[in-house]
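Please decode residue identities from the backbone states below.
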């Protein structure tokens, strides 16, 4: 999904339906913790009829303060590694599970642009984390191309595809 192909609404919906089927099958609830996608993952999932049976909550945390207050991200982590880092996304996904009764969580943090990028973390840098209750959090770094919408769409697709893998592992 790191190519230049930008997922369509229909493709995102299909990924959402795939996740929904797995969530229902496993009788799990899901929580999302989003930064650069601004609730886009939660929207794709809650656009599906019946999503209240498996979608618990979605949290959008842009500021350091929100990440700390709502997800329990350690201020020292943010000072040391910044919001767009493996450490931060792992704390986001773990914090989301700790604060809600869900059985699975996905978290995203990144730079969707058009500004905000640096030499170390250019626009399109995105960390995605996944975790199941009782399991270990893990994360993956992506470098997406395109404008803000393209980067956000690719992030949503990668987050949902990774969630599908997490649920079938």
């Amino acid at each position: 999904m790191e190519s230049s192909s930008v997922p369509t609404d229909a493709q995102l919906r299909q990924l959402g339906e795939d996740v929904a089927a797995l969530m229902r099958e496993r009788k799990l609830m899901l929580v999302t913790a989003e930064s650069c996608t601004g609730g886009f993952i939660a929207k794709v999932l809650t656009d599906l009829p019946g999503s209240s049976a498996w979608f618990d909550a979605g949290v959008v945390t842009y500021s350091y303060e929100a990440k700390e207050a709502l997800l329990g991200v350690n201020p020292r982590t943010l000072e040391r590694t910044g919001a767009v880092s493996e450490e931060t996304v792992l704390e986001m996904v773990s914090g989301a599970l700790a604060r809600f009764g869900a059985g699975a969580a996905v978290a995203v943090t990144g730079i969707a642009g058009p500004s905000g990028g640096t030499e170390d973390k250019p626009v399109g840098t995105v960390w995605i984390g996944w975790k199941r209750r009782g399991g270990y959090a893990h994360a993956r770094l992506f470098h997406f191309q395109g404008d803000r919408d393209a980067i956000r769409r690719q992030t949503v697709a990668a987050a949902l595809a990774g969630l599908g893998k997490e649920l079938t592992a």
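Observation: Helices lie at 9-26, 40-46, 64-71, 75-81, 86-99, 148-168.
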